[in-house]
Amino acid sequence: MTRAEDNPVLLVETLTAAAFAPFGDVIEAASAKQLFPVNSGSAERFHDLADIDTTWKDGRTLVSIFRAQPRRLPFEIRMLERHPLGSQAFVPLLGQPYLIAVAESLQDRPRVFIADRGQGINYRRGTWHHPLIALNTVSDFLVIDRGGAGPNCDEEALRVAYRIDAAEF
Q: Which of 24, 56, 92, 139 could form a disulfide with 134 if both were Cys (CB 3.0 to 4.6 A apart)?
């Protein structure tokens, strides 16, 4: 049996649209495909920030709030999940940083990103990811994902447990 401190350590990367592109979209003003004034010029619309994909196989779009408990570091990544029938978007409501762990396949070493205040993400349909990893405090997230018939959450244990250390970011 291995000790937790012997598990491979994952480096924490800054969340950018380019780095996260293989897994989905970063939801932030800088990712807008268009910007234009709305509400008689009293607001700006940062337009088309994510490819929300929820209607496949007669799905429908759900809007929910998830309340995530903060995780203590070091933290082990032992499993990943994916949603084969639709995308899943998370937008922090309290402006707290959080971690995102993703992999292109279960055989790949996961990548970990830290979301800065106000950055949301949208996992592409089928993207392997770890459930929410809130930091510091209880955090609420607006979640946009798929509702409808059919199994839409696959969970798999990883062959290797990976560790995230506070010293890595």
A: 139
Element (H, E) at 17: helix 17-20
Mean per-residue pLDDT, 88-111? 96
pLDDT tens digits for 79-91?
Answer: 999 999 999 999 9
Question: Structure tokens of 33?
Answer: 């495909």
- CA angle in degrees (0–180, nearest 5) for 100-103-107: 145
Q: Cα–Cα distance between 85 and 65 in angstroms, integer? A: 20
CA 50 to each of CA 1, 19, 111, 122, 159: distance values in angstroms, whole numbers, following the listed order: 42, 15, 20, 7, 32
DSSP class of residue 107 equals T
99/129 Cα distance (integer angstroms): 11
Instruction: Evaluate whether 117 touches 27 at the Cβ level (below 8 Å).
Output: no
DSSP state of 84: T
